[in-house]
Specification:
The chain has a domain of 55 residues. The protein contains two helices and 28 strands. A hairpin with a 4-residue loop joins strand 8 and strand 9. It has 377 residues and is mainly beta. The radius of gyration is 22 Å and the shape is globular. Helix 1 packs antiparallel against helix 2.
Length: 377
């Protein structure tokens, strides 16, 4: 009797899939509206949920402020220098901005701190660890008062990832990594993921801030340039010059996406509230299959569940470098997705899970439950 009930349930799901197939197909392939934000000197961006503002760093030293509600720029905050990575504190009150400028005579790098309630700015200077450093590269908040920082080097070298107290300016060296290492915090700020670019060692890692637990790994013979971490640090995704590789909390491989030689993943960002990740793709000119430029994937099944942008020429070839076209950021509520393009930023309103996503998830879990029971028998 129980076997008959299970078979009947599975049959009902299959019938529903057949009945809903036209809607499912439409749900998977219908792109969402996009707003282009004109910012030709842009590098990185971050959303401010408290003020519904998008902050955009530029090579000219201006921190652009784009009001989401009115769809217009406010006057920029002039920081100076050659700005790079940006992050916002969990309480949405402080920005930390990296700057490729430095003082080689005094042997100092710095980051810019912006107090958002007042828009007051200040620099926190960081002494060189080795001669030849040439500015800061990436920032990541782990709590409202602590930001991680990486640096650039005039050539190629090994530099510490540093922890900065934004109130006192105290700096602590955490671990050694390559110059221009990229940092990404989890949505709960209990994990920081990082990748070390610039060589084929394919080194990356994750750090759990609650107990200082560090795990490192490699993707041999692959160039790395970006990384994504799920909201609770249980999954990681690493774009390379071929595939997108996916790992669990212990950095054990659980799958990969893409077609080697056809499509190159540019970046990945995880939804802060749902079991989803968003992947941007660059299409090689000689590729036989063209994937849509921006897609959503279920993080349980790694199946594609939504097409966000169905065009195939949105993101240019940025090579194996960070902060290039295809760089992704997402709002704290998961409703807005931002993608860097050649002359600015694309803003997408993220759709709710479609019937395609819900049906695919239901089929997956029913199949897994049935398979598990059969194995126990």
């Amino acid at each position: 009797m129980a076997a008959g009930v299970r078979s009947a349930r599975f049959l009902l799901v299959l019938i529903a899939a057949a009945v809903l197939f036209p809607a499912v197909s439409q749900g998977l392939t219908t792109p969402v509206p996009v707003t282009f934000i004109d910012a030709p000197d842009s590098i990185d961006m971050v959303h401010d949920a408290a003020r519904n503002m998008l902050y955009i760093t530029t090579t000219t030293g201006d921190l652009l402020r784009y009001n989401i509600a009115s769809r217009e720029f406010l006057s920029p905050i002039t920081l100076g220098g050659n700005l790079r990575g940006i992050d916002i504190s969990p309480d949405n009150n402080t920005l930390a901005v990296a700057d490729l400028s430095c003082d080689s005579t005094q042997q100092k790098n710095w980051i810019h701190i912006v107090d958002l309630p007042s828009n007051q700015t200040r620099k926190i200077e960081i002494d060189f660890n080795v001669s030849g450093e040439s500015g800061t590269w990436s920032t990541a908040f782990t709590d409202n008062n602590t930001v991680w920082v990486t640096s650039d080097y005039g050539g190629s070298g090994w530099l510490p990832i540093e922890k900065v107290n934004v109130t006192t300016g105290d700096v602590t060296n955490l671990l050694t990594a390559k110059d221009c290492t990229m940092l990404v915090p989890s949505a709960d700020h209990n994990y920081v993921a990082y990748i070390q670019p610039g060589n084929t060692a394919g080194a990356f890692g994750r750090y759990r801030t609650s107990d200082d637990n560090l795990i490192t790994a490699n993707i041999s013979l692959k160039y790395l340039y970006e990384i994504g971490v799920s909201r609770d640090g249980t999954q990681y995704a690493v774009p390379t010059n071929s595939y997108l590789y996916v790992f669990d909390e212990n950095l054990e491989s659980i799958g990969q996406l893409g077609l080697d030689g056809d499509d190159m993943p540019r970046d990945v960002v995880y939804d802060p509230n749902r079991d989803r990740m968003y992947v941007s793709w660059y299409n090689w000119s000689f590729g036989t299959e063209k994937v849509p430029a921006l897609q959503a994937y279920d993080t349980n099944t790694l199946a594609m569940v939504e097409v966000i942008d169905d065009r195939t020429n949105v993101f240019t070839d940025g090579g194996a470098y960070s902060y290039e076209a295809g760089r992704l950021r997402i709002s704290d509520d998961g409703n807005l997705l931002f993608a860097r393009v050649e002359d600015g930023v694309n803003m997408y309103v993220v759709p709710e899970p479609s019937c395609a996503c819900l049906l695919a998830t239901a089929v997956f879990f029913l199949w897994r439950r049935t398979s598990s029971r059969q194995r126990r028998r």
